Structure formats: structure tokens, C-alpha cells
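The aim of this short unit is practical: by the end, you should be able to scan a pair of folded records and say something sensible about each. We start with the first protein, listed as its amino acid sequence and then its C-alpha cells.
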Amino acid sequence: MPLDTSIKSVLIIGSGPIIIGQACEFDYAGSQAALSLKDEGIKVSIINSNPATIMTDKVIADHVYLLPLTCESIEQILTEQKIDAVLPTMGGQTALNLCIEAEERGIWEKHNVRIVGVDTAAIEKTENREEFRKLMVEIGVGVAKSKIANSFLEGKEAAQEIGYPLVIRPSYTLGGSGGGFVHRKEDFDHALSRGLQASPTHEVLVEKAVLGWKEYELELLRDGNDNVIIICSIENFDPMGIHTGDSITVAPAMTLSDRCYQEMRNQAIKMMRAIGNFAGGCNVQFSVDPATEDIIAIEINPRVSRSSALASKATGYPIAKIAAKLAVGYNLDEIENQITKTTSAYFEPTLDYVIVKVPRWNFDKFKGANTELGLQMKSVGEVMAIGRTFIEALQKACQSLETNRLGLGADGRQSRNLEEIMHSLEHPSWDRLFHIKDAMSLGVPLESIRKITHIDKWFLTQIMELVSLETELKRYSLNNIPTDFFTNLKQKGYADAQIAWLLGNVTEDEVYNRRKELGIKRVYKMVDTCAAEFPAKTPYYYSTFEDENESIVSEKKKIIVLGSGPNRIGQGIEFDYSCVHGLLAAKESGYEAIMINCNPETVSTDFNMADKLYFEPVFWEHVREIIELEKPEGVIVQLGGQTALKMAQKLHENGIKIIGTSFDDMDIAEDRGRFSDLLKQMDIPYPLYGVAESAEEALEVAHKVGYPVLVRPSYVLGGQGMSIVINDEDLEKAVVKLLRNLPGNRVLIDHFLDRAEETESDSICDGDEVHIIGLMEHIEPAGIHSGDSFAVLPPFSLPESVINDMTEYSKRIAKALNVRGLLNIQFAVKDNKVYVIEANPRASRTVPFIAKAYDVPYINIAAKIMLGVSKLKDFKIERKLKGYAIKEPVFSFDKFPEVEKQLGPEMKSTGESIRFIKDLEDPYFRHLYKEKSMYLSK
């Protein structure tokens, strides 16, 4: 069936701000779906309250509504726009819940809007645990023994009937919220109460726990003719008991027998067909008994999920794009395969490589948090790596994590504490993967590790091989390593820096030069979805060590954009938004735009976004060799946050041009000491400060500048390691901890301006002119990280003299730092005197917020200025904001109920929303002002 021509306009519901359990994978899905529908001539409207995403950008949709995700907002849109259909499957659980609420209120029927892409009856069947269990029994799919409970008494009766261990699964929640395992009767009451409270319907499923079983996922697509295809099989490295969002996952499945896989496929297709009559995407999760290969169904999600983004990047098959076309009438065989351009979308991708996803956590931001992993998701982001083998991909994933690891160990950061290691194996946290290798290195038998972790023996054998290789490598010196063995090390994912560490007294560059002498070079393979059975047209590549290089270098002038790596607190989706605009600006300026990034959730790693995508770690060795191959005009580091900025020094030292602000000028701003010296020369006020490299020096500085003091390291993002201290004892502890965690760094000690207001400016400089993008006033006082503060645009209570000083200082600093592109400055205002706290000559988390508030494509403008193809005078900038815009931070403290929610200089928010008000009499603003800024009225 071809396109349903009665659908002229579609509303896509977004997922709102980034929270743990619902991250930027839905920004990717919504963006893909919108572009896919626009290709068909359909007008697309989007509702989403997140200003940091590309999804809420005009390049994606015809109409963008930056409104709260409520039925009132839906009514407003439907009154203003003629909407024929709503697509709620691209915005996670938030979008589905809003769609159901609007349906229950009769809003869709009132405005004659159809729901496409899902059947709301299907949502009820999948989210209601008892309905799901009954349906599975009815169609002959195995499920764990379970009972539904809507009260405390029913839950106790269910537990008595089923027996321990148990799992509590609340209905209608996201990211496993409120769920958990119960091993002992004494712990049940608390777990049951938490689950009942977490469920919006006060309902939980009390289920027999299948601890130690293996966990798998299948991604499916179904069309209106009831054709179903399996896009990808995904195997969890971690067994049942850890939320799939917190599990290391591998694609395709590695340890399934063909019989079991075929049975799993058949059951998944049966499940998808049973839950309702709809066309779109679906994710199914299974558990498999490792001894018998008995299969039970865990859950089915009739929407795009976190795994859909991973499967899309893993296979090159754009699930959200195809699902959107299916939702408006097309069948699979009527849609062109985006990769080959010659076959249809009605085919199942074939992988001749291995994908590994490793989650990224930020437990350091939640002091005192329970870091043990379980049914409730706790990770804030993830990385994906592609290799020819599992172990190569696993090592590349470890290099992508931004945790200062060079791979899976072999970097001097391994643990030698056997007691700590064995506890970690039994109580999994973010570092269990590394401790498995550490245990093997200490001689713990593989079978003992398997019994404790329940991880499949095949995976453990692969890691054990690394231990053997490292033992063999230590027999050689750099100059006598056999070429075959050296090649084998590289094919197993070892970085040059790891080999250097293992050899000792050798540098990374020496290892790099030696392997080049031996002709061991990185080559690039195309992600083609069909194992090279058909010619592929897509420029999507990963690296390995073989003979044939499939990445053909063009004659065009090229620009490389370095991505921001995994999402984490302090560096989120706003930097991916910036990178996407950098790519678009480079293409519009006549360059071939090349992207390097390793985050599967993001729009920047969509193979349609860049002229060429290298899905690789943003890790020096990988970046270096791509640059050597492509020979770009330069590299953009200003848009990818701290991940890309950290590469600037290496690029500078190797004579590679940095596009925009130079390395030295960026370094002045990053080095807090050098920057304060610059302010002193310019006679711009700043808090008294000093730099220390030891606790003794820190005490001297603190006595000189006066308590309270703000203690912080140089070269960090998101306020990492910052603290405010009021005496010598606390200062000494803070400095010792910083220098231990960030060796080689220097500590900056500022006098803290107590009870000061905090403000910000963002600007663009082209070398001659400076344009102030926006001035913001924070609701919270100085001392609360800017990312955790409510920011109001434009300022609402600052005197004109303060605004003039902020503007003047911004312009002078931009000129002094020779900024080409973006500059963010943070100020403290006390007694109407403006002090400069810090300056960042790069994209900031506030630029997307300002761009959306004023409806001006500021990142695109800045990128063209960085590229040197435009000046500020070339742009006609018209701001459209009437009233005020407020940036609202969003937190995920519900995942860590044991953690104190006190905010301070270290950022803790996971995302943000935008809210518009007409004037300062708005009730929302008056409440905010009263509750959040009592200090201002004193």
C-alpha cells in the first residue's frame, strides 16, 4: 500500500528533557522521523520542551513548539495547526503516556486527529504487566511465574505463593524506575512499597526472578500488510538482573545456538502480531536459560527504544526513518534501502563485524549513591564501537568512554586488591568489566569468575586471551616484536599507548612509528548492512587492521568535526546539537564535512548528516590516523565540548590546523591561572585567586585570598571536582583528593563571593566585531553550578550599569583572546560590581537555549565565522523573543533516593527544558522567584 494521501500533516511528540532512562536516542528518532515525513511532502509539527536538541530546530520540522508536554499544549497546537495524524512512538514513554492521556480526554477525536505508528490498545497490553502476562500465555510464549498486585496485601500474598528470589516490576514506568530484586523476605516490604509508589497506576508485577539467565533483545519492524522483519539481534554481556540500559551489549548475538535464535525470532514475530494492528517499530526482550535454552519473554515495547538507536547505528538501517514511512501507509517492499539504493527496506541487515555498546555512568556526581547495578537504570550515556571481532570492538569501546582508560586495562590503572575485585564481580558496578580482566591477571580461574558473574564463558574466554597476549608481549622489546604478533595485538584492539605501557620505557609515538615502519596500518571498512552482498552508497566507516581500505579519499577540501563522545552530566546533547550545525555549515560552505564520534544515541552519528562518518573513538590514535588519511583543511574542536577540546593540544603539537580560535588562546581561557592574569592586565574585576600544586601551597593561597574559597582544577567541564570550603582542614582534604584524582593538574583557589548573583553572556566574535548572543541572569546565587541554575533571558532585575559592564567585558575578553567563533563568560555580581568568574571560547550549554529562544541559528553563524567564509556583517540577525525565556534544569535524583540533593559548584542536572513567559507577573515566574531566590530580597 503506498502513501496514505489523506495525511497532509503530522504531529510528532518528543520526549522532553534528558533524564536517566530517557536520553538523546529519542532526539535522534524524532529527527529522523521528521525528515523522513518531510521527504514525502508531509508537513511536520514537533512538540518538545528540550531546547538543547536538534529535534527542536527549524532544519528538522516545519513547525516547532517549545512547550511543556501537556494536554493543554497539545490543544494549543491543534487549534493553531491543521493536524491529520499524531506519531507518538518517537518520544519514549513520555510521548506514549501523553498520547494516551490526550486520547482519554477525547482531544484527538475532537480535532479529528488519527494516531499512527502504534495502536493505543497495544500500549495497554504491553505496559500493563498482567495484561501482558495473559496475552503471552494465550499465544503460547513463555513467561516467568508472576502475579499482579495493586495493594500491599496482594503483593505479600503473591510473594508467598511464588517464592524467593523475586523481582518487583512497576507498571507504566521508565528506565526500570521503582523496580528491583528481592532475595530475602525481610527486604520485601520496603521493595514492594517503593514499586507501588513508583507506578502511576499503583500496580506492580511480583515475578519469579531468573537471576543468571542470559538476556537478549530483538529489534523488529512491521508494515500494514503484516510483514515483519528482524533488524538486529542484541545480546547482553551481563546476565539477567542488570537493566538493559546499564548492560554491556553486543550485536549480533554471539552465544545463541541457531535453534534457539530461530525460536526467539518466531516468538518475537508472534508477539508483535498479537499486540495490535499497527505499522512501526518494536523492541522485544527475552531471557534464556543458559543450561536448557528455554526462552521466556520479558517485555515488548511498541515504539522506538534506546536499543533502536543502537540497532540503527549498528546495522546502518535507519529504523526511525523507515518506521515513520510505515506509519503513514507505506509497506516495507515499497521503501528504498537507504544504504544500497538498489534494494528495498524489506530485507534483514547482515553484519560482517561486531558491535559493542558500553554504558557511561556519573556516580562521581552523586556522592553516597548506591553504585550497584540492578533493575533500575543508572547510566547517563553510552558509547558504541565497531570491530571485526568482539574483543577489538570491546577495547575500542573502552577507549571511547572518557574515563582516562586506554582500553580494557594495560594502562597502569588496574586494581591489585583481590578482595575489592572479588566484591566487584559479585556486586556489579561501572567498573566490573575492568575488574574481570584484573581478576584474570591475578590468576583467578575463569570458571570461578563465571560462577560469580554468570557471564557466558565465551565472553570470558575472549577477555582471558588479552591476559595471555600481554604476558607474551612482555618477552619482547619494541624493536624485536614479530610483525605477525604486532598485527595481532592491533587486531585485538590494543592502542599504541597500551603497548607502550606494557613494554615500559617506550612512548606512544615510538610504538606508532615502529608499526608504521612494519607496514601495520589502520584501514577503514564500510558499514553496508548487507555484508558486501550489494554495493553500498553510504559513507559510513569503522577502522580495523586488514589489507583493503574501503574509504576512498576525495579531491574536495575537507573539514573534520570532532564529536562530544558519550553523554554525561556536564556534557550533554547540546554539544551534539552544535556538532550537527558545524557539519551543516561546513557543507553549506563548500567543504566535505567529516564527523568523528562514538555515541550511538546522537544525530551527529546519523550517516546522512555528514558527507563522511567515522564511527570511531574520539581518542588521539584514532583521530590522528583519520586526519592522516583525509588530510583536512582543519579540525573543528570548538563544538564538541571538553572531549574535543582535550584533543586541541595534540592537534597543535602535530601541526594540524584548528579551525576557529587558536589552541594557545583557548588554553589561556582553560588555564584558570593564565586567564586571571589576563584579566588583571585588562583591569577587569575578578575574585582574588592563586594557583597551587600541593596542599601546602593551597593553604598559603587561601590565607592570602581569604575564606570562603572555591577550589577547582583547571581543564574540566561541568564543575567536576569543584567545592566551596571555609577552613584549612576542609581545604586540605579537597586539594589532596583533587590531585589524587587528576594527577598532573593544578588547583585554582578563588576567593568565593558569598551571596553574589550569577550571570552569563554568550557571544560570537569574528576578529573585528563582537555580537552578544544573549545575557542571562540566574535565579540561584553564585556557588550553584550554572548548569544547575534556572537562567532567565534577558536579565530581569539587573541594573543598566551591570548589563553595560557585562557587555563591555564580554567584548574586551573576546578581542583579547582572539576569539573566532563562540565565547561563553560567567560573572558574579555583588553590590552591583561585576566580577568575571570564567570564560570558555567554545560552544556552551546555553547557546542552543538562546538560539531557540531568539529563533536565530547562532551555531551555524558561528561555524561559518570559524571556517573563515563569513563575517558578522554578512548576517541579518533578527531576534523574535517577546517577554522572557527560562532555562529549567532537570535532575534524575529519583534514581538515587539515598543521595543528598544539595546543589553546589559541581553540576548534577541531566537535562533542561525551556519555558516562555510574557512578563514578570507570570505566576510561574513569581513562584520561582520567591522559592528559589529569597536571598535577592534581603
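Turning to the second protein, read its sequence before its C-alpha cells, just as you did above.
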Amino acid sequence: MSVESIQAGKQLPNIRPEIVNYERRPRTPKQTELWTLLAIVAICFAAFLVVPMVLVIIRSFTTASGAATLSNYAAVLSRPEFTRSITNSLAVSATSALVAVLLAFLLAYTINCTNVPAGFKKAVALLAQLPMLLPTITYGFAIIYSFGKQGLITRLFGHQLFDIYGFNGLLMGYVIYTLPTCFLLINNSFQFVDKKFIIVSHIMGDKPLTTFLNTVLRPLIGTMAVAFIQSFFLAFTDYGIPTSVGGEYDVLAMTLFNQMLGSIPNFNRGAVIAVFMLIPSIISIILMTVLERFAIRYKQISQVELPKGKRRDWACGIASVVVLVCTLSVFAVILLIPFVTEWPFNVAPTFSHITNMFTDSELTQVFTNSLYVAVMTAIVGCLFAYAAGLVTSRSKLPNWAKRSVDAISAIINTVPGMVLGIAFLFAFSGSSLQNTFWILIIANIIHYFATPYQMIKDSLSKMNAGWETTAKLMGDNWIKTIVRVVTPNAWPTILQVFGYYFVNAMVTISAVVFLTGARTQVITTKISALQHIAKFDDVFVLSLLILVTNLVVKGVIAFATRDRSAERAKAAARATVKTPQLAAARSTVAADTRLTAAAQAAHNGTPDFPLPTSGNRKARNAFTAGLSAVLAVLLVGFGFGATATASTNGQVVIYTNADDEAVVAFQHALDNNGFKNQYIIQSFGTSELGGKMLAEGKALEADMLTMSSYYVDSAQDRNHMFADLTDVHSKLLGTSENSKAPAYRSPTTAQEGAIIVNTTALKEAGVPEPKSFKDLADPQYKGLISVPDMEGSSTGWLMIQAIADAYGTGDEGKQILTSIYRNAGPHLEQSGSGPLKAVRSGEVAIGFGLRHQAVADKKKGLPIDYVDPEEGNYSLTESVAVLDKGTKTNPKAQKMAGVIIDKGRKELLKTYPTPLYQGEKAPANASKRSKTFPKPLTVDLLQEHQDFSSECKRLAQGE
């Protein structure tokens, strides 16, 4: 059949006139739908990325008084550790990204370019993604409990294999963290590499290396570069892993962490560091643009049998096993620790940790919240990423429009989750989004947009570019083509994107930790709170719960995207038998008019690659309609309705950073005095709650809170957010700090510091038990102690108070503190619970931490003891305060604050044995050397002592 006969329409009367005249009417398509999608994407990014980040940038140029200045930049740049942290971050991030890309390529190559068994390929694909099923906050714990001095793998080998702190620990953690992302990107692109060129290269007699470079590596070079960039920025912006195993190897993310969540949060200086972390995005945008030229498109992907190569298969198979074993062995402890009594002291099997967590009603609600947030993040995130991918890969929009989306994706890669969370705080405090699930969902979608977008973009760009044009010539509109042709071909990638969003929404902490409220807590924020109160067994139990949940979801997705090539072949054969004449006619039309197979399929209503759920179309449509109705109910009902504030039913919302013992005492006092079921208590880590107080001010969801006293004072100075207490009748003792407590707060507990020892590790080290802080400066304790850095934790302030009061901040005090820091080395912890964790795990023999936690460990029979130092047990108080919300103030809050102090102190004294009020007597377990710093504990004094500590830290590091 000739083209002229087709144009005349004589032999195929069903050909539409627009096809007949397609050569006579060349014009630029309007692409109204794609412009609409671009507008939606642009508006969303403007509202939820640009505006919040602009507020962060503005913060970097303003002082506490609101004046515009460069003083914040000068202050940050003048610190020598800032330059060092940048250099260190670049080095370890680049190294880990390179290693992760190479390992991910090996795994993807084994799956796609070898003839190893199909079951083995599926196992590799699943196991390669396993690390991303866990929150990064557990990575550091897993490394310590695996490769530390008393770790599981260390015990198996009989000695520690390598030092896990500093560069080594960060490299290991970052590679494990970023490997799944690299694998997803590279493996996804491998599916669009036409394997027939490998056969052709073999037939042409090319050398194996030439074949590999030209037919495998060359089509993937762009994706591999993108994977490197994404891996680099994931490592560059992560702070969870450095908090545990960073040691003395300062990285920029930890510098940002200390500014945003340290003992003195400084959002303005933190914004400066955030701006510096955004600078590399400019480089990445340029690289992305350059890498576009390396993209290769195939009009059709051939399914061919790969050439045999036993050596290749064995080598790749063994290498993949080694990579996976080395990667996943780190997480073996997560499957062990929840089922032993107390690692490493008592390894007797038990299910008590599991049963205790699942009998907690709060955990059930938190887990339900997490599932909802993850599911909605995945659904809406898929739609959003798919829309952006269509704009850049399946359109003829101007290059500036496409590049703008690519640029936004690159920028998102460089925005730390913690910065994004803070930015959302600045932008949406007091709005209808505050304390709803939807602010969490939106934050997750924006935070993790880059990888899903790149996956969908790669998938769409490797499809035939002429499908939409051909379908239009056949009379099909754009929406029908997308739904019936493009989407079915992209379905496996879409499901992978769904899984990626779901998993990351389940494991993320940094992007949502500031945004959760009393009714919107998720499981990872619960883990963060447990970490702060040193409940590490529970951390592993919750991590295991997250792992199981994510495994189920990934398993379902793997089942849905399983290979159905045999079924497709049968379906194609049946279609050919049923309509042989129509098939022949369409083949002729395709030959003469270059119509693609996919476009023909769209015109017929059958996708080129049928959906896994292909079957009765009416049934599928009914199912889709029903699912849409359910989602609509979830969107409206659960998303906003379930997050209505507690004030609607008169309940008082109480935010607290207190330990479980204190929370239980609060509950007993309230329940026994007529307030049962009239309040909600929500726990936070000190830093997270402090950040919310300073950022949200009176817009804070809480009606009442208990918090570190100096944080309450700082928030009051900045935001004037607390009302004077009217129902507290107990009178404070005449101590220096308590007697001057302001009228808007009243102390609930006093947290004392003490020296903590692991009696078993101390005996093995062969050193005497220290009696004072001065003893800790002795060189014989080098490598055996762990202390908190007061720049990152207020617990460290207790030690600094003792040294400053006993020895001053002059030469003697400076020498003692410098020697302590030198002896601590990589165990200068950024978390107040860090030293206790190191002592419990046997990493060190001696630590400094909160006295009551050591007392509790000793009472449980652990080989943990405590020493009241000769310099004295100094303390920090936590106080209750009521928010002043004007006419919206809950009247019950004042009465409850009074009950907590007047009725709850008797029980609190059992755990926190420091008398604070008149008539109280110290119990038997009280410290014998309780002391109070002679000056009031103000933020100014905290800054003074922090400067003293920073100077000693620099001296200890040889600067």
C-alpha cells in the first residue's frame, strides 16, 4: 500500500481526515494540559519551598532584634571549625557517594546483565533496598552495637575490626544510607537499556570491555552521575549518623545541628549555615544540564536473551553477595536486641520488650498516624512527581520551563530536612496547616521529591518520544494517551516511587520533628524522644516495627511489578488470532506512517505493556472510583478532622521533655485530683521542644508545658508567651536559682549530674574508679571516658558548672577541661544520653550523665554504678509554665500546673531526690554533694560557659 493511497483514504476508510492531512498542517501544539501541570507544580513549589526557604534566607541576615546585618555571616565564618567541617563534609560525602554508586551499579548489573537465577535477582533487588526501610537515627546505634568494642560482630570475630568513629564510621553509615537510592536510580534505568546491542557488539567481535563501555556504561552514564549527585547530597545533609559515630570528625550537618538544636538554639546563625549548604545546588544544576546530553532513547526495548558467560555470572553473583552481607550485617543487631534481656550484659531471651511496647496505647495511635502519613505521602507524592516528570520528559514546552523543574529538584537535594522543617515552622505557624497531618505530608513530599522525580523522568524519557504525537494523529486526546499508553508503560516505576515515598515517610525524622503536635505524632518522633531518655532497647523495638511494616509494603510492590512477559506473549497471541485482518492493516499503516506500536495500542484501548491488573475494564473503573471515594474520605475526614486541637473537647494539651518517671508522676497527680481524661501529654526531646517554643511562640499547640527552665526563660524573653502562675501554692527553697524563679514558671524537677561507670569495663581496663572531674583529666583515662559537649546538649553544662565553680575558667579550669576533652576523644557526645549509651554498650568505662538514669540502671542489676564527684552534683531544673493565649487560654491549665507542683512533688522526689520546695526532705538516695551554681542560670551564663567549653575543645584538638 502506498502513502498516496492512504492519503486518499481509499483503502482504509476509518482513517481520520486529520491523519490524511497531517503533512499539510505543521504547527506548534498548544499543550494546554502540560502548561496547566507546570502551573500546578510551580505554585506548589512556590508555596511550600520557595517562600519557606526565603524566610530562612531572611533569617540569615537578621539579628534577634530584627535588624538587617551581616553579623551572622561574620560570626559563622570566623569560627575555625566551620571551614574544617566544610572540608570534612566534602571529603566524606564524595567518597561515600562514589562507593555507593559503584556498589549499586554492581548490584544492578547483576540483576539486568547476567544470567544468574531469577530468584537470586529478586533477592538482590529486595535486599539492596533493605537499609532504606529503617530510620537513619538507628544507623549509628546499629554500627556501635555491631562493630563497637562490645558489638555483635566484634564478639564473633573476637576483636574490634576497625575504629568506628570519625571518617570510618561516617563512610560506612553514609554508604549504607545512600546505597538504596543509587540502586533504585540505576536499576530503573537499566530496564530501559536495549540489550540487543550487547548481542550485536558480540557478533561484531568487540572486546568485552568495549562491549561493556558502549552498550552498558554509556547509556547509564547520565543516571550514574545523577545517582552520585543525589548520594552526595544525602550524605552531605544528614546529621543522624554523625551524631552517633562522627566523633571528632566535624561535618557541616553537625555544625548546623548544633546551631538549630544545640543547648542555645540560634536560628539566625543556623540559617547562615543552611544558605552555605544550598550553594552546591548551583553546581548540581549545571551538572544536571550537562548530563542531559548523555541521555539515550530507544524507540523500542528489545527483550533478548543475554549471551552466556559463566565467569561473569559467578563473579557478579559472588560480589553481590559480599556487598549485601557487608551492608546488612550492620542491622543484624536490630533483629537480636529486642529479644534479649539487656545487651551486652544479659543475653537471655525475652519477649518483654516487644510486649511492653505493644501494650502501650500511645504507641498504637502513633503507629496508626505513621501509616496514614506514609500512605498519603506516597499517593499524593506519586501524582506530584508524575506531573513534574510529564512536564520535563513528555512535552515540547520551552527549555526554560523544563530546566526550572530540574533546578528545583536539584535544590531540594541540598536542603537538609531539619532546615525544611524549621522553614515550615516559620512559614505556617498559626495557619490552618499547623499541627495537622497535611503539613507532615507536604513536608515529606517536598523533602523526598528529587529521587521519585528523577526515577519517573528517566522512565518517561526513555519511552518513544512520538507516542503522544501519533496518538493525536489518530484522534486520541492527550489525557487518554497518558492514561492508556504512557502510564501503563511507566506503571512499574510509579509503584517503585510509591514505595520510595511510603518508606521514607515512615523513616524520616528531621523533616517532621518540629511539625508534629499532640495528635499527629509519628513513630520516628517517638524514637527520637526515647533516645533522649536513654531507652535504647525500645528504640530497636520500634525500628524493628518500622522494618517489618516497610518490608510488607515493598513485598506487595515487588509482587505487583513481577515479570509478566509470558502472560503478555499469550495475550498478544490471542489478540492476533482474534483480529488477524485488523492487525495486518495496522501493521501496514505503521510501516508507511511510522506509527508506533504503543500508539496503535492506545487507539485500540489496550496498552503495549498491559497493566498487572488488566482484565475487565468496567470492573477496573468501578474499583478506581471506589478507591477514589475512600481516599477522598481519608483526605477530608482523617487528614484534618482527626487533627482538630484538643481544645474542642476541653482537654489540656501538655508538652513535656520529661522522662517517663516524671510523666507518670504528672499523670498520677492529675488523675488523683479530678483531672482524669481531661488532658493529653505529648513527649518531645529537649531540643525539638525548645525549637518549637522559640519558633512558634504563642501559636504553640500546647496549653501547658514542662521544660528546662533556661529554655522557658529564653522563650519568654523572645516571645512573651507565658502567663504568671496563679494556682501554685508551694514555696520555693531559698537557693540561688530557685528563689529567683520568675512568676511564669515553677520548677518540677532538678536534674543532677554524676560520673557513671561500667564496673565490668572499668575492671577490664585496670584503672581505678575516678572520684572527681579532676581525676578524669588524668592521662590514664585516655580513650576510656565519654562526656557530653555542652554546645550540643545542656547536660554537658552540669559538668562545666562544677569545673567552673571549683577551679574557675582561668588556667586551672581550662587545663582540666581540655584534658577531659582530650581523653574523651571521639566520645565527646552531642547528646546528653550519648555517654550513658557508650557506657552501657561497653564502648567506654566511664561517662558523665544524669544521675537518676544511672541510679535506675544500677537498680535494674546492670553493671552500672555512679559516683558523686568531689566538686559536687550540680543541677538544672525543669519547670512548668502555662501559655498565655488570651481569650483562647484553657482555664484548666493553671489548675493543672498547680496540681503538678503541689501534689506531684512527693512522687517526683523518689526519682529526682533534690528538694526544691519548703517542707521537702531529701530521700535516702539523694546525692551527698548537691550544689547550686552561685550565679543564676541564665542564657547569658550558658553562652559564657559555652565559649569556655569551645576554647577548651579547640585546645584538645590541637588548634
